[in-house]
Amino acid sequence: RLRFAAPDVALCMIRVCSMGRRGMVQGRITIHTVAAACMAAAAAGAGGGSGGLGFVGNVGGLLLHAPRVALRRHGGLCRRPLAAGCRLGAKLGALGLAASDDLDEDIAEAREAGKLKVFELDSFTLLSGEKMKNVSVVYEVHGTINKEGTNVILQPTSFGASHKDQRYRIGRGPEYTLDTTDNAVVVMNLLGNGVSTSPSMVGSLSKWKYPTLHDNAVLMKRLIEEDLNVKGALRMVFGYSTGAMAALQFGCLYPKRVERIAAICGTAKTTPHSRVFLKSIRLSLCADPAWDAANETFTERPGAGLRAAGAIWAGNGLSADFFRQEEFLCEDEDGGVRSLDDFVEDTIEKFETMDAHDIIAQLFQWDTADISNNDKYKVGPVPLLEYLNHDSYVKGSNGTLLT
């Protein structure tokens, strides 16, 4: 674990070694290799899980669990059963990419049920000094916030995902990563993801102000204070991918407002390799004939650009070990064995459901992520680490291309 020097904030950072397309969902938090790494790294914690659960991590006394994954080897082929109710092929691609085909219907249903809420601001000043008008931050609440407001876990969404895609890990009982028995989990859609205020809502990037993850972290604080009336410290901020980066940013900006941080597959500052990867996705989108550079808009859906972006993601969003160990060869919903071509095509199909304007907005947030780039910490990334206690650092297996 990492701890901020003052105050005492527990921080668990996990870097993913290899991630199966199925494994991320049925592993609830990441995959079996991360669970194993964290079990070893957190041996001084509260011990392993019970029943079908594997111990993922002890984050300042708050346990995170993942169902144990029994791998069945068939001539070197890893085959993993799907978790009940998790149809990853229909909704999620590699690294949590979300299909948006039925998102509007889901939002309407969630609003009617009273779970989905909107935090609205007439004006919001960004770190850049630009002002965004009529900002809507959509969030979903799982569980009940106690009267003291001391049981709240905040989860910002990840790249390409919405609140809907986080539900598989949230629920009542220890079989869920985020247990709502005693916790209330608030999932906030980051700006630009197609649910909260996004360029797709106006169909152009020409008037988009390009908010950063820093700006989203500020909105996270305002949401819990102004809309949820939670004035004390959050029990935890949990995030995956860019959500993890937003969680780290929140912890640096507001250390007194959070007790624990669980940052899954995220970095405090985007690495040079990641920046090259992100630029390649953006250029592939903008190489499509539908891109009108002068007006910063796609005149029609950039089918070829989206397919190219998906293919780039398929080859770079996962570790070399993922391909070397042929983890893409997993059972599908019908019991068949998937091929490498199936894996690539599924990833491409997820990109084809996404809005290209929103992808570019989210790429910008990821590309510019840096927890030290603000008025509070006008220092480089190395001096900033002096604020952390390295003696309690826990790191999972290294190896992803993006971290």
Automatic annotation (TrEMBL):
- Record GO terms (molecular function): acyltransferase activity, transferring groups other than amino-acyl groups
Which domain of life does this protein belong to? Eukaryota
Stored Gene3D superfamilies: alpha/beta hydrolase
Entries under PANTHER family matching the protein: HOMOSERINE ACETYLTRANSFERASE FAMILY PROTEIN (AFU_ORTHOLOGUE AFUA_1G15350), HOMOSERINE O-ACETYLTRANSFERASE
Question: What is the protein's name according to its record?
Answer: AB hydrolase-1 domain-containing protein
